[in-house]
Design goal:
With about 290 residues, the chain is mainly alpha-helical. It is built from 13 helices and no strands. Helix 2 packs antiparallel against helix 3, helix 3 runs parallel beside helix 6 and helix 8 runs antiparallel to helix 11. It starts with a helix and ends with a helix.
């Protein structure tokens, strides 16, 4: 029996990736709360925009990876809706356009707080989401996906969330963006680590394909180490011991490093992919509680 349409679309939205949209808004808003400038209306619009861009980008990846031959019957990860014949390519393209159009409309509302220059930020976010797997020179196919994720899900997302509430970007906002960007990029590392063979066959030159699984394991571990070190930086700047809350995740982070190193099957990596998103969500929650004190 075929799955219900809503279940197919939910899977295409890739819920496991959505912590990447929530985490930077949560952290940026926590900093705004600490500084006495939190505006829940602006934060809510940032969250809606981030979630819709993430979902629209996931739809775009589903569509463009199918067109580029990266999603085939030999793919080892979760099935993709277009490649599996569950959603027609034209339907996915229309859904992608509709979701990103709504995201843009919501982003326009943020100009009331941040000014018209935010239109450029919103357009850049949407264009890069499409260019990750689409366009004449897709970023993800040339090893730039990790950089894109770090910049837009870290620096841009945290910085913009704070800016629309505070009217400025501070050093703390940029520092807080670093661990969020790195942990979000780790989701991509696990995904590409799993798909390295099929990506290489399709000409998708991710960093894992270019530099090997050993480099990916090192990147994953270093990103976790930097993320866990950043609370100490905030403690030294503020003498607020609450900032050290994310240290509690060190044993879990170490287990993740070992799981990536010791993985033997795609199913193990699929499970680690979900757990990497959960770690990002928990980190963002603990970090937000800490810096908000």
């Amino acid at each position: 029996m075929s799955a219900a349409p809503w279940k197919i679309w939910l899977a295409a939205a890739r819920p496991r990736t959505l912590p990447a949209a929530v985490a930077p808004v949560l952290v940026g808003s926590a900093l705004a709360w600490r500084d006495g400038v939190c505006d829940l209306r602006a934060a809510g619009l940032c969250l809606a925009f981030a979630l819709l861009v993430q979902i629209g980008t996931n739809f775009a990846n589903d569509y463009f990876d199918f067109l580029n031959g990266a999603d085939t019957a030999t793919r080892v990860g979760p099935r993709r809706a277009v490649a599996a014949g569950l959603i027609a390519p034209a339907t996915m393209r229309a859904a992608m356009g509709a979701v990103l159009a709504v995201a843009f409309a919501i982003g326009l509302g943020l100009t009331a707080w941040g000014g018209p220059w935010l239109i450029a930020v919103g357009v850049a976010s949407i264009v890069c989401g499409l260019a990750y797997t689409g366009g004449p020179w897709p970023l993800g196919y040339h090893g730039l996906g990790d950089v894109f994720v770090f910049v837009f899900f870290g620096l841009v997302a945290v910085g913009t969330t704070y800016f629309v509430q505070a009217g400025r970007v501070t050093t703390d906002a940029l520092l807080a963006a670093v661990p969020i960007g790195l942990l979000t990029a780790n989701i991509l590392v696990v995904n590409n680590y799993r798909d390295v063979e099929t990506d290489a066959a399709a000409g998708k030159r991710t960093l894992v394909v270019r530099l090997g699984r050993g480099f990916a394991r090192a990147q994953f571990a270093v990103s976790l180490a930097i993320a866990l070190a950043m609370p100490a930086v905030f403690f030294l700047r503020s003498r607020n011991a609450w900032c050290l809350l994310p240290f509690a995740l060190a044993p879990l982070a170490w287990r993740h490093v070992r799981r990536l190193r010791d993985s033997k099957s795609p199913s193990e990596l699929i499970e680690l992919l979900g757990d990497t998103g959960k770690l990002l969500a928990i980190y963002a929650g603990l970090f937000s509680i800490g810096v908000a004190q």
